Amino acid sequence: MDRIPILQMGQFLLVTIQVDMHDQLAMTLQDDLSERISATSARGVLIDISALDMVDSFIGRMISTISGLSRIMDAETVVVGLQPAVAITLVELGLTLPGVSTALNVERGMKLLRERVAAQ
Amino acid sequence: MNVRSSGSQPVRVEQDVVMARQVSRKLAQDCGMRLIDLTKLVTAVSELARNTMVYGGGGDMDWQILDDNGRTGLRLTFRDEGPGIPDIKLAMTDGWTSGGGLGLGLTGAKRLVDEFELDTAPGAGTRVTITRWT
Ligand SMILES: Nc1ncnc2c1ncn2[C@@H]1O[C@H](COP(=O)(O)OP(=O)(O)O)[C@@H](O)[C@H]1O
Ligand SMILES: [Mg+2]
């Protein structure tokens, strides 16, 4: 079965979503990430969605769930690379991704994660 | 109004929902749709195709490229022969879901397009038609 790779970079996990995900793939990512957070004691998760040209309510919910899951596992999640057209569409769809931290790009996202973890 | 071209796509399994997004993106590009409008349309397609698959038990997506007084539009119909929707008003309420969704598919899709039509009855299947003009 196909999976989205999760890379470990020190105390952080990095996920780059590069495919148009079908629903099961999104669910698998959610499960894989929670397992990896627990196995590696990661302190942060960075999800790069710059290659996603659409986020619907299913993917939006997956992002919120990952964010909430990682929080209760003592890890921070930052989502980076949300395209402007995708962001506008999300708001109109009615999804505001409450509790999800975002940053413009991977560099800023990593900086945000480091600051958050250092502040704890 | 003139139908420039038309076609149909199955919407039965998860991978078909991905295909429906890709096909409608390509068609919207052919219509010369702006990125923002195209993104909204494809997002609506994703929501409606998933409903067809999950709640309708599978069906089809029909598409038409329309010419109307100098403007071009993409019209998509999602149809299934599933259980239908007993309470349309309830289904068209933000946040209402009979399954485990967020309840934003129908209402969200309506906000994302220019025209939205829902035709359904218990036992008679469901047909949702959306149109976005350039
Ligand atoms: N094609 C369909 N056939 C039967 N019921 C449907 C169909 N599409 C939507 N529904 C009903 O309308 C409800 C709302 O749909 P939607 O707004 O997409 O939210 P969600 O998919 O998150 O439940 C669904 O929970 C379902 O009960
Ligand atoms: Mg839905």
From TrEMBL, chain A:
Residues 2-113 form the STAS domain. PROSITE patterns: STAS. InterPro entries: Bact_StressResp_Reg, STAS_dom, STAS_dom_sf. It comes from the Bacteria. CDD domains: STAS_RsbR_RsbS_like. This is Anti-sigma factor antagonist. It comes from Pseudomonas turukhanskensis. The gene is rsbS.
From TrEMBL, chain B:
Pfam families: HATPase_c. It comes from the Bacteria. Residues 37-131 form the Histidine kinase/HSP90-like ATPase domain. This is Anti-sigma regulatory factor.
